[in-house]
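hi! just following up on the protien thing from before. the input was this:
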Amino acid sequence: MKHLGKVAIIVLSVAVLATSALATHSITGFWHGRIRFDLVHLPAEKNVAQNSARMAKFNKLQQVTLNLTIKGDHTYHLTSTGGPNPTTQISGTWAMAGNSITLQPLNGGRPSGSAYTYTLDKVGRSFAVTVNDSGVGTTISFFR
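and the predicted 3d structure came back as:
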């Protein structure tokens, strides 16, 4: 019986340590990102050439590299390179509640564009959001 009590205390101690480590896990720092599309429900263009051009654009967009720096002062900086567009830079603020991270772009100190709320994985190594629009599911994910 004494042995069972010691085992229970050890298991409880490990559980408390693991929970506190996750609770204090910081999302600040550098993250790599990517964009992926689910085109299963996207209606095809009637014109074959237009459809091919559209699909080529989606393929190019999936080649975009995202670099995100989340700072301790609740600001972030995102740079996207590659794909069909020149390098794009976005800065804004971030907030975290539970396992949700919201990134709000700013322009001149004011909210600009849509804020996106990402879901952090259980171990804090990645987070992602999926947006569905006009038959296209777009997933933006970040990982360390």
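The radius of gyration is 21 Å.
The chain has one domain: 27-143.
cheers
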